[in-house]
Structure formats: C-alpha cells, structure tokens
Amino acid sequence: MANESISGLARIPVERGCSACRETGYRGRIGNLELLVLDEAVRDAIRERRTSREIRRISRRTSGLVSLFENGLVKAARGHTRISELLGVLPRLDGVRPLPVLRRLVGE
Predict the structure, then answer these.
(1) How far apart are CA 20 and CA 16, in angstroms?
(2) Which DSSP state fits 91?
(3) pLDDT the model gives residue 2
(4) Residue 64 has pLDDT above 80, yes or no
(5) Is residue 107 predicted with pLDDT exceeding 50?
C-alpha cells in the first residue's frame, strides 16, 4: 500500500484496486458528516445575522465543530477515502487542525 500526505499532517494510505471493486480500492459508501451544535454562542451569532463563516468559527471554538474536510481527513487516515476525493469536492474554509486533534474530536 502506498501513502500520500497533505501539508505534512499525516501519511495516509492509498488504496489499490481489484476487479471486484472496479480498480477503486473501495467497496460501498460511507457518510462524511458535519454537525453544527446550536449552543448559546452559535444562537447569538445567528440572531446577530453573522456570516456563515463567522458562525462556523464560533462553533469550532465553542463546541468543537469538525468540518466536512477535517472529517474527511480522518476517514482518509483510516483508509476509507482518498485525499484526492476530498480536495476535489470539499471546501477548505479555515485552517486544518492536526490529525491527532481531529481524531480526539471525532471520538477515536
């Protein structure tokens, strides 16, 4: 299994395919989710009509929001997806936290 990395954050496995998976290295689907917790700080930001970017920053700081991109990185580190897929479809709105921090936030 080869590896790829993103910004030196982690060495991530690159799956190799076979005829059963149509040379993709994957079988089935897996969800990549983001949960915005409506704590008091986020509610206040919504009431004040702050931008979505500001609301995300507040949620990240107050309730540990893990972005779709960050959650995808954790899944890539597990070998469930590829970084190239993340880079092609997911926005990178804020700085990406280190993989050990992300793993802790998603409960690994």
Answers:
(1) 12
(2) -
(3) 45
(4) yes
(5) yes
Please report the pLDDT score of residue 12 as a whole number: 62
Tokens standing for 73? 């990185």
Structure tokens at 19: 């005829």
Q: Which tokens sit at 25?
A: 């290295």
What mean pLDDT is predicted for residues 82-92? 83
What does the buried/exposed string (b/e) look like for 17-33 if buried means 16 or more CB atoms within 10 Å of the residue's CB?
A: eeeeeeeebeeeeeebe
Alpha-carbon distance of 47 to 41, in angstroms, equals 10
| Residue whose token pair is 């507040």 | 58
Q: What φ, ψ does residue 14 adopt, rounded to 5°?
A: -110, 120
Q: How many CB atoms lie under 10 A from the CB of residue 78?
A: 13
Region 55-78: mean pLDDT is 92
d(CA 68, CA 76): 12
**For the residues of 28-44, what is the DSSP string, one character each?**
S-----------HHHHH
Q: Is the pLDDT of residue 7 over 60?
A: no
